[in-house]
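Checklist before submission:
- one chain only
- standard amino acids only
- sequence pasted in full

Submission:
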Amino acid sequence: MGKVPIKTRQYTIGASVFAVVIVIGIIAALSWSTLITYLNEIFFASALIILVPSAILDFKHEIYQQAHKNK
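Returned file contents:
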């Protein structure tokens, strides 16, 4: 596993937020009542979509730092 630059982590968060906004916009455009009905589920899925890729990259970066700290 290699070092993960800060720009990569920032782009990942930005792309995740952009994807969530687009999907919520499409759902709202198709059916406002569906958005309101499933608001809790959409919120939970949105949080996962934003947090999981960022957490994976942070974990990868932490492993890289630990490997190089011990040398």
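Reviewer check: The radius of gyration is 17 Å.
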